[in-house]
Design brief:
heterodimer; A: 266 residues; alpha/beta; Rossmann fold; six-stranded mixed sheet; 10 helices; globular; B: 326 residues; mainly alpha; 0% strand
Chain lengths: 266, 326
């Protein structure tokens, strides 16, 4: 990949469901190391963009390149193997497993022991398993989940479930992490802590982040660049200050009225 | 080294039981024990598909039939002459039969595994009720095919299968399926299966090739169902398509559900319980199956999550309990 090239680029990506264009000709470029925000009103197509990037849907039109190679049309697990993992807006943990297992499952692609090793308990299996457990413990530690390592994911308090989603996505050792409303349902204090944690994680693992967020205050606080979607169309892109004053954005969020404190939470 | 000792110990224990059982108990009890063992293999193997991976398969009798008939054909046509030659050369009978029987059991299992692969393929697209209907259809097709193939006896059944499967072999089958399941459950691959059961979309997004693992569960489950069929054939010396009806599949599902989806020890316990129950209820004659069904209903109402839920019975559990009461 040449220097200065984007890590992820979407080139006029369209996703059509029957007569509905959920995403229409969206182009985005995300540079390595960036923390990029994707915002927009309900139903604007934000999660659809995530689903198209991660291979849940194959885009109707357009190109998606990751590290200079096309990834559109790949199956989700293949996209994950290329180095893109995600969290889900409506938490999707493996409820019947403990936190450590949840993280280990996501490290799946980095396991070296094959089926034979597992069934016959070879030395390679033991080494592999020990390494996976160690890495899982580290990630749980980073996300402040160590006390819950052996708790079933379904029995975890809500805020910790949100954190576990992130720990799990990190276990896939992504280069690009997609966070779908990580602070949804958290109180302002919890969401501040989480955003701080996300920033810590980004630095520590050298990640690039694409973040969907409803809470404008949060996005404006940590993202350097933001794109705004409305009815599947990108209506603006720029720095938080540019977005805050963009008349199209204001209209999309609040109708015709000009808000007094758009930055303080929409 | 620990593994080697463990295996040697298990084999010695199985051989000792193999020797002792027929001498200590009457043939009826031995038969019930054998059927318990075969049903345990069936239940634990179905648990891999239904319990671990959460795919609803109701065609397990079909895999069992393929393994049973396949292994019978192998031992009748290739195994018997081989064993006879060995015995003529002065090898003791039990030892001479071991090779051919093992070949038959593994061969039957592999045939069933191929069938499992073919049935597993639609599971990529189908889930829940729809997959259940496909597997139901598969089981019935196998049974009807066997009914109409004269080379395997058709509706008359297949007599004259060498009765080589002693307790040692059934016990070995149980040990094999339990060990494979256990080792699988505590590995990356088993965790991938559980992940698919809990949330397929999330599993896929985190790099688990769900297609591959769903088929894998079918292949391994079908293999051991085939082995169970082979044990069944070589224990009874006779096979009939009527042993592999839809009802047999349902019986195995009842074992898995009663034991607790995903719990290996639960499947083992429930398989033994549901094999013993009809036998214990023999004195009540005509009401036997009514009582059996009633007890099943009561058990499921009182423990809807199954006997063990998704937990496993372990030695540590007993130790903990003892520590708590002491």
């Amino acid at each position: 990949m040449p220097a200065g090239a984007p890590l992820l680029s979407l080139d006029r990506v369209t996703m059509q469901f029957g007569g509905l264009k959920a995403v229409a000709e969206i182009s985005l470029e995300i540079a390595p190391g960036e923390l990029f925000g994707l915002i927009g009103p309900n139903g604007a197509g934000k999660t659809t963009v995530f689903n198209v990037i991660t291979g849940v849907y194959a885009p109707t039109q357009g190109r998606i390149e990751f590290e200079g190679r096309p990834i559109q049309g790949l199956k989700p697990h293949a996209v994950a193997r290329r180095g893109i993992t995600r969290t889900f807006q409506n938490i999707r943990l493996f409820g019947s497993r403990c936190c450590r297992d949840n993280v280990c499952i996501a490290a799946h692609q980095h396991a070296e022991a094959g089926l034979f090793d597992a069934v016959f308990r070879t030395g390679r299996f033991a080494r592999d398993e020990a390494r996976l457990m160690r890495e899982a413990s580290e990630l749980l530690e980073v996300m402040g989940l160590s006390p819950w390592a052996d708790t079933l994911a379904s029995e975890l308090p809500y805020g910790q479930q949100r954190r576990l989603e992130i720990a799990r996505a990190l276990a896939g050792r992504p280069r690009l992490l997609l966070l779908d409303e990580p602070a949804a349902g958290l109180n302002p204090q919890e969401s501040d802590q989480l955003m701080h944690l996300i920033e810590v994680v980004r630095r520590r693992f050298g990640l690039t982040l694409l973040l969907i967020e409803h809470d404008m205050r949060v996005v404006m606080g940590i993202c350097r660049r933001i794109a705004v979607l409305d009815y599947g169309v990108k209506i603006a892109e720029g720095t938080p200050d540019q977005i805050r004053t963009d008349p199209k954005v204001i209209e999309a969020y609040l109708g015709e009225e000009v808000p007094a404190d758009l930055g303080a939470g929409a | 080294m620990r593994h080697a000792a463990w295996w040697a110990g298990s084999i010695a224990a199985l051989l000792a039981l193999d020797f002792a059982l027929p001498r200590l108990f009457n043939p009826y009890i031995v038969q019930v024990v054998m059927l318990c063992g075969i049903n345990v293999v069936l239940a634990v193997s179905l648990n891999l598909i239904n319990g671990f991976t959460g795919q609803f398969s109701i065609g397990h009798a079909g895999f069992m039939a393929i393994g049973g008939y396949g292994s019978a054909m192998i031992t009748m046509h290739a195994g018997r002459p081989w064993a006879a030659a060995l015995i003529a050369a002065g090898v003791p009978a039990a030892l001479a039969q071991a090779g051919p029987l093992l070949l038959g059991l593994v061969g039957g299992g592999l045939l069933a595994a191929v069938a499992g692969y073919l049935v597993g393929l639609p599971s990529l697209r189908l889930r829940g009720d729809y997959l259940a209907i496909v597997t139901l259809g598969f089981g019935e097709i196998i049974r009807v095919l066997i009914l109409n193939i004269d080379a395997v006896g058709g509706a008359r059944g297949l007599p004259g299968i060498p009765g080589w499967a002693s307790f040692f072999w059934v016990g070995a089958g149980v040990l094999a399926v339990v060990m494979v399941s256990r080792h699988l459950a505590h590995s990356t691959h088993g965790r991938a299966l559980f992940a698919i059961r809990d949330d397929e979309v999330a599993a896929e997004a985190l790099g688990v090739d769900t297609t591959r693992y769903k088929v894998l569960a079918f292949v391994i489950g079908a293999f051991f169902a085939g082995v169970a069929g082979g044990l069944f054939a070589h224990y009874l010396s006779y096979l009939n398509p009527n042993s592999f009806t839809f009802l047999k599949s349902i019986e195995v599902i009842a074992m898995v559900v009663l034991g607790g989806m995903g719990s290996i020890s639960g499947s083992v316990l429930a398989a033994i319980l549901l094999t013993l129950l009809p036998e214990v209820l023999r004195p009540v004659k005509d009401y036997r199956m009514v009582l059996y069904s009633l007890m099943l209903i009561v058990l499921m109402i009182t423990r809807p999550q199954g006997l063990l839920g998704s937990r496993e019975l372990t030695l540590a559990m007993f130790r903990r309990r003892r520590a708590a009461t002491a």
